[in-house]
């Protein structure tokens, strides 16, 4: 539990590996739902979400999958 709290604080302070540009935000995670929710959390307050999309990325030789999801807004 302590590790999760430290990770959450680190992400809040330093941000995540995602990139935000005007009208969209992209985030990555090992779970598609988590990546989507992270991207949606970057939508500015009062803006209308116009769509979400995800791309799966195979990682390493173990066949694990990471997801890169983008939320777009007006």
Could you provide a short overview of the structure?
The protein is α+β, with helices and mostly antiparallel strands. The chain has helices at residues 2-14, 32-40, and strands spanning 19-21, 24-29, 49-59, 64-73.
Structure description:
This protein is an alpha+beta fold and 74 residues long. The chain has one domain. 30% of the residues lie in helices and 41% in strands. A four-stranded antiparallel β-sheet has the order 1-2-4-3, with helices on one face. The protein is elongated, with a radius of gyration of 13 Å. The termini are far apart. 12% of the residues are buried. The N terminus is likely disordered.
Topology:
Blueprint: H1 2-14, E1 19-21, E2 24-29, H2 32-40, E3 49-59, E4 64-73
Antiparallel strand pairs: 1-2, 2-4, 3-4
Descriptive keywords:
41% strand, alpha+beta, 74 residues, 2 helices, disordered N terminus, four-stranded antiparallel β-sheet
Major pleated sheet: 4 strands, antiparallel
Helix/sheet category: alpha+beta
Distance between the termini: 37 Å
Would you list the SSEs in sequence order as H and E?
A: HEEHEE
Rg, nearest Å = 13 Å
Number of strand segments: 4
Helix content: 25-40%
Low-confidence stretches: 3-14
Strand order of the largest sheet: 1-2-4-3
Give the mean pLDDT: 82
How big a fraction of the residues is strand?
35-45%
For this structure, the quaternary state is single chain
Structurally, the number of domains stands at 1
Estimate the global geometry from the Cα principal axes. Answer: elongated
Tally of helical runs: 2
